[in-house]
Automatic annotation (TrEMBL):
Substrate binds at H105. This is 2,5-didehydrogluconate reductase. It comes from Rhodopseudomonas palustris (strain BisB5). One of its GO terms (biological process) is methylglyoxal catabolic process. The keyword NADP applies. Belongs to the aldo/keto reductase family.
Length: 272
């Protein structure tokens, strides 16, 4: 497994996304993923599956210190006292004494960012989260968050796959030593229909989804693909034994555009 490093955090380059997984199915997939070698699990308060994720981690019998667990605070809990309560509540549900990474899930323009960043840093100081970061932050918001936060931010988790150009966000993350964690890294399954990705994959004996993940890893980006199928769990982590050429990387970059975004919310910021 490779790692993406940022401000002392060692983030396993491939993790398991758990959005829309729940109940016994979720805990089973988490357990199976850890048994297959995954060491990074991504959940969120709003996914309503932190209990199941925690159960999967325990059932795997992988040492807690070997697993990088991320959760996210929902936007309605960004006032300082709410944020602390919410972070503690996530620990209770996960049955963990700390998470490795705690993120603000989306920007919330209705709560002063400076207050929220102070509260997030406080949660880190208390040992509830080993590292802190943000998600769905634009370049301008990331700049403000970094300036307002007394502790380093280790990541900005954003949508990123070959069909979405994230050049500006990548550059801003690099400027601040912030890791980019790619969500929807195989374009919510759409990658598999793409002719370019399929052709490049065939040249390496890999699938289009694996090409997406490899393309991200080669940019020093971490990715958190989600699947509920055991055979795809194995496939999605099997991306460390081949390398895309410079020409293939460039060809995949040419698929990207600002219109390639799949995830939208009514309150989303004005994207870069
Ligand atoms: N911070 C945020 O706001 C945010 C937003 C969205 C997502 N996320 C996180 O990012 C994770 C991943 O994003 P995502 O769930 O939107 O999309 P994704 O991982 O890009 O795609 C998941 C979809 O692709 C299919 N799939 C998985 N592996 C495959 C493979 N090897 N070949 C073909 N199809 C495959 C899955 O179906 P099967 O289950 O049938 O395999 C599922 O329908 C989420 O689970 C969540 O943890 C965060």
């Amino acid at each position: 497994m490779q790692f993406v490093e940022a401000h002392g955090a060692k983030i396993p380059a491939i993790g398991l996304g758990t959005w829309e997984l729940s109940g016994h199915g979720c805990s089973r997939v988490v357990e199976q993923a850890l048994r297959l070698g995954y060491r990074h699990i991504d959940t969120a308060q709003i996914y309503n599956n932190e209990r199941d994720v925690g159960e999967g981690i325990r059932n795997s019998h992988v040492r807690r210190s070997d697993v990088f667990v991320t959760t996210k605070v929902w936007t309605t809990h960004f006032a300082p006292s709410d944020l602390l309560r919410s972070a503690k509540d996530s620990l209770v549900k996960l049955r963990l004494s700390e998470v490795d990474l705690l993120l603000l899930h989306w920007p919330n323009p209705h709560v002063p960012l400076e207050e929220t960043m102070g509260a997030l840093a406080h949660v880190r100081d208390l040992g509830i989260a080993r590292h802190i970061g943000v998600s769905n932050f634009t370049v301008a918001l990331l700049e403000r968050a970094v300036a307002a936060c007394p502790e380093p931010l280790v990541c900005n988790q954003v949508e990123y796959h070959p069909f979405l150009d994230q050049t500006r966000v990548l550059a801003a993350c690099a400027d601040h030593g912030v890791a980019l964690i790619a969500y929807s890294p195989i374009a919510q399954g759409h990658a598999k229909q793409n002719e370019v990705l399929t052709r490049i994959g065939a040249a390496h004996g890999k699938s289009a989804a694996q090409v997406c993940l490899r393309w991200l890893v080669q940019q020093n980006v971490a990715a958190i693909p989600r699947t509920s199928r055991i055979e795809r769990l194995s496939q999605n982590i099997d991306v460390f034994d081949f390398e895309l050429t410079d020409d293939e990387m460039v060809e995949i970059f040419s698929l990207g555009s600002p219109q390639g975004r799949l995830v939208h919310t009514p309150t989303e910021p004005e994207w870069d």
